[in-house]
Amino acid sequence: MKRNLYSKVIRIIAMSIALCCVIPSFAQHNPWKLLYKLPATNAFFITDNGNMLMADFLYNLTGGIYVSTTGGATWEKCAVEDKNYNVFLENNGYIFAAGLGGSIARSADNGITWELLSYGSAVEDILGENLPYTCCYSMTMHNGKLFAGDFGGGGIVYSEDDGETWIATDITPLSYEVDGKLCVENIYNMVSYNGDLYAFGVYMIFKYLSEENSWELIREDSNFMAVSTFYQGMLCTARSVMHDGEDIPFIETLDENGVWGELPRPETVDNNIRALYADGKDLVVGMAISGLYYTDDAGATWYKLDDGIPYASGTYFTPMCFQSDENFIYLAAYEPDFATTENSGLYRLAKTDLPTYDDPGDDYLPEDPVVAAEAISSSEIKLSWETVETATSYNVYFEGSVIASTEETFYVVQDLIFSTDYCFEVSAVNEYGESDKTEACAKTLYEGGDEVENLFNIYPNPVENYLFVETDVCIEEISIYTLTGVLVTQQPTDNGQQMIDVSELISGTYLIKIRTNTGETLKRFVKK
Fold it and tell me: At 509, is the pLDDT very low, low, confident or very high (cuts 50, 70, 90)?
């Protein structure tokens, strides 16, 4: 099958440029710094040893590779044929760069010197005379093989010997018919994730079937899912073409169970994402028109990240890719080489300048409530507090746990033990969080009167094995409770002195309730 791929590539370039024409202005406070100007910057990569690589995409379909061994301070153009290189990959001691015409440049010394290879022999039967004009935007490693996706209709190929020789995968499932003509999907992006290899075309998404060396069509709504990254264990993908409207997912996700989802979007309804990159908890998005966005909480909070990026009306400025090292995030930004401005190049932002969600602190959190506690019966204590101006509700705590949440300025705690000291805490709550807790204490009322309470003596306290109750009146029943009111033991009696075995109790504070024919009293003791 022969087609005029050169004209198609030119149309694609023109379409991409047209989509970038209407760009809003943003204030510039310069946290992003222009590190190096390179006309028509297209791709950027940091090698494992720290070398930096950059490629340009010139409008006449030429463009080379540049290397920096000084952290971006100085650059040199590499001695490799200009082929408009689009993507870099590192594996097995080699750096690979995919370019025009099926070219695969390979470096064994971290990008200093290069040799030119090609997967052309694996696709020449399909592309014929159009082979010199095809291009590759995607490479990935999967199960020890180097895969390359052809964007000119050549399908997907792989190499098992680091690019020396190439084998074509089955092109049939990648093909479709338009007006009676057979076409092969243009592959824009490939990702190895969770044991599977995914290929994203202009229109469709495929999964690799390794045993058949073929592909399974899994979705027909790719629509330029051209960028991807791994974030919080998920594969994240985004579309590099204009889609206005919230019905189009901003960033789609695929989890380890094979379930597709999406991340929340920022304010923008534009979905034209050209660069997508994750580094730990940080996810950075570069859009052709709407600017740069950043989240550190999976999209729950988004921040604009445009300061120092020269978005302006009348330019074709487009973020192309992000990378990072220990201290900085880098952005390769594109303008065509015929642009009247000179904004294309490599930008750098210190990670310490990334916005982050700050603890709102005392300026936003409600004030601490002023709380009072009052016993209103032998089993109830009323807590009350003054209204806190910014509070929307209040939490009531007992022994560290919330026992109530209320919008009122009082709460009655019930089912308490008589003649017992209790302490509670109350906090104020609003949309920003919770104030510190304020403690208030009270003792429930006594049922039998002070004259009954003073008739008893318990010892030793603290106790290890046996607790003695001494009195001159007749005891009818003795009960032991935890401080939370749970009955531990109960025994009847008919004399004035009792010995109670508490050796099996765990260490802590307990309540002993003594009932007589004239009333009840409650005392505390400590078990060692």
Answer: confident
Q: How high is the pLDDT of residue 179?
A: 84
Least confident of 71-85, 158-172, 339-353: 339-353
What single-letter DSSP state applies at residue 469?
A: E
Same domain, 411 and 377: yes
If one counts the domains in the chain, the total is 2
Residue found by looking up tokens 């705590």 in the block: 397
Contacts of 385-392 with C-beta under 8 Å, sequence gap 24+, read 385/409, 385/410, 385/426, 385/438, 388/428, 388/435, 390/366, 390/428, 390/430, 391/366, 391/367, 391/428, 391/429, 391/430, 391/435, 392/429, 392/430, 392/431
CATH number for position 508: 2.60.40.3080
Whether pTM > 0.90 for this model: the answer is no
Among 141, 515, 53, 27, which residue's Cα sits nearest to residue 321? 53
Among candidate residues 423, 443, 463, the one where a domain is terminated: 443
Q: How far apart are CA 371 and CA 410, in angstroms?
A: 9
Least-confidence region, from 401-405, 421-425, 521-525: 521-525
Q: Is residue 194 part of a domain?
A: no
* Residue scoring higher pLDDT (511 or 484): 511
- Same domain as 458, residue 427: no
What pLDDT sits at residue 9?
38
In a domain, 496, yes or no: yes
- If one counts every other C-beta atom within 10 angstroms of the C-beta of residue 120, the result is 19
Question: Does the pLDDT value for residue 272 go beyond 60?
Answer: yes
Final residue of a structural domain among 378, 411, 443: 443
**Domain at 384, CATH number:** 2.60.40.10
Q: Note the pLDDT of residue 474.
A: 80
Q: Which domain does 418 fall in, by range?
A: 361-443
Mean of pLDDT values over 487-501: 77
- pLDDT at residue 452 is higher than 60: no
Q: Is residue 418 part of a domain?
A: yes
In whole angstroms, what is the distance from residue 480 CA to residue 489 CA? Answer: 5
Cα–Cα distance list, 158 to 201, 204, 211, 213 (Å): 17, 20, 14, 10
Element containing residue 13 per DSSP (H, E): helix 5-18
For residue 31, being part of any structural domain is answered with no
Which residue's entry shows tokens 């409530």?
A: 369
Same domain? 416 vs 489: no
Return the beta strands (E) in 194-317 as ranges: 196-201, 205-209, 214-219, 227-231, 234-238, 251-254, 260-263, 273-279, 282-287, 291-295, 303-304
Distance CA 272, CA 250 (A): 9
